[in-house]
Design a protein that fits this description.
The protein is about 30% helix and about 15% strand. The structure holds guanosine-5'-monophosphate.
């Protein structure tokens, strides 16, 4: 999947938005959904996605992007308050050669802990749902 192409309405995040695949939600409003990454690179790895369909940062509406990054900031602040990480990495990939694996725009919020090396990106190692729910509850409380 290069940068070009049409939006695939069967991508995993589109299915999550339609409620066809479950997710552990952190935050939702009319324009944005935030949920726990099912294959987290660190404890508290959270995703923030727009509800409007777009493949990546380049083909999204600028106003949607502005709203998305502002919500990402708010949720990152809640992750900070809830989980007390030593740092936070915010990432976003455009196109498969850049590392993108799900072709619906999203920001990653990856809490970083001193001395802990984050896991590999999209590793395929699924997290325990109970653990994700407990982390999401803490973040929700901080929001
Ligand atoms: P990308 O590689 O496109 O930047 O990021 C996609 C992210 O989605 C990865 O971090 C991956 O772990 C996560 N992911 C893939 N499938 C699912 C899923 O079914 N549920 C959730 N919550 N996250 C997923």
């Amino acid at each position: 999947m290069s940068l070009d192409g049409t939006y695939d309405y069967d991508n995993i995040f589109a299915k999550i938005l339609r409620g066809e695949i479950p997710n552990v939600t952190v935050y939702e409003d009319e324009r944005v959904l935030s949920f726990m990454d099912a294959f987290p690179q660190s404890k508290g790895h959270t995703l923030v996605i727009p509800k409007a369909p777009s493949r990546n940062l380049l083909d999204t509406d600028p106003d949607e992007l502005s709203n998305l990054i502002q919500k990402t900031q708010t949720i990152a602040a809640a992750v900070r308050q809830a989980l007390k990480p030593d740092g936070i990495t915010i990432t976003q990939f455009n196109g498969a050669p850049a590392g993108q694996t799900v072709f619906h725009l999203h920001f990653h919020i990856i809490p970083r802990y001193t001395g802990v090396v984050p896991g590999p990106h999209a590793s395929g190692q699924m997290a325990d749902i109970g653990e994700l729910s407990a982390l999401a509850d803490k973040i929700k409380t901080a929001l």
